[in-house]
Amino acid sequence: MVDYLCDQAVEQEMAVACFYYDFASRGVQSPTNMLGSLLKQLLSGLGAIPGEIARKFRGQKKVIGGRRLRLPDVVKMLADVSSLQRTFICVDALDECVLKHRVEVLEALGEILLRSPNTRIFMTGRSHIRGVVERGLGGRATSVLIKPRDDNIVTYLRTRLKKDTTPEVMDSGLENDIMKSIPEEISESYVASGVRETFVSCTTLTGANVDSYWSHSRWTQS
Amino acid sequence: MSQAFANNINSFNVSIFNATDDEPKILAWLSPLEPQVRHQDICDQRVDGIGSWLLETKEFRSWYNGNENGETDHAALFCYGNPGVGKSHIWYERRSVRNQE
């Protein structure tokens, strides 16, 4: 999605900034750092630093070896910069943001939407945070359920088979089983784990060393 | 820079600071995080065409285009689903999108 928006941005006068939450990085992904990162991307696109931000930097540089901005300052600057042009903000895996930060981030994003009417926010996350997101943005969010489609699963499998790094443990029988069994049996809930389980069942069907094949492949790591 | 954009910046009441030397320091000061690294990882793993159906949904179109004035009641779009369904990898096929234009 980010690349789709970036392609549009190249042709039109608009800006795109993105952020990817990762639970393993929760220690550094504070709301200030996250929103500061979005601001940094937008400023890079502008090619100039607004005077207000430069003045804040020069002032903070004098104390404690360069004191960082507070969250309200970052939110205000981000809202101001977002309002300069049509802006898209993309936030991936919001469920991997720690709970107390998630509330703050949603509140900040809601404030940016209020102050910058031309801004659009695209977010992804697991189903259980849908209510929190919709409430946190005060009814300004609409939601779409993402689930794998049969044709997408087939396309994905064909692409990954072409990139197979252990073709020596693959044969036409196993490949046919994969292409037939996975789209039939896969749960719409878990693509990656579904693929893994179906691979295991193929061991019985074909006698191939699927575990060896699996251990060398990276199919489920994306 | 277009005139409209320049006017917008003036209305923001900022003087454009020629930060040739300070700009990298200011950007680093704003945040130490570099999400473009993760973005490149996602791009490398992506399969063209997966998730392109999203662009055809009324929710996406309304969010992206708004009404005739570009306004919308839903300025945020939340795509939700269970782990592994490809939320981070929603992609589109450049060729098919361009053909529709």
Write up this protein.
- The complex is a heterodimer of chains A (about 220) and B (about 100).
- With about 220 residues, chain A is α/β, with parallel strands linked by helices.
- Chain A folds into two domains: about 1-135, 3-Layer(aba) Sandwich (Rossmann fold), CATH 3.40.50; about 150-220, no CATH class.
- Chain A has helices at about 1-10, 30-45, 50-60, 70-80, 100-115, 130-135, 150-160, 170-185, 190-205, 210-215; strands at about 15-20, 50, 85-90, 120-125, 140-145.
- In chain A, strands 1-3-4 form a three-stranded parallel beta sheet, with helices on both faces.
- In chain A, strand 3, helix 5 (about 100-115) and strand 4 form a beta-alpha-beta unit.
- In chain A, helix 2 (about 30-45) runs parallel beside helix 4 (about 70-80), helix 4 (about 70-80) runs parallel beside helix 5 and helix 8 crosses helix 9.
- The longest helix of chain A is centred in the middle third of the chain and has 17 residues, at about 100-115.
- Chain A is elongated and about 70 Å long.
- The model of chain A is unreliable at about 190-220 (pLDDT under 50).
- Chain B is mostly helical.
- Chain B has one domain (about 5-100).
- Chain B has five helices and two strands.
- The longest helix of chain B has 11 residues, at about 35-45.
- The two termini of chain B are about 25 Å apart.
- Chains A and B meet through helix 1, strand 1, helix 2, strand 2 and helix 3 of A and helix 1, strand 1, helix 2, helix 3 and helix 4 of B.
- Strand 4 of chain A pairs parallel with strand 2 (about 75-80) of chain B.
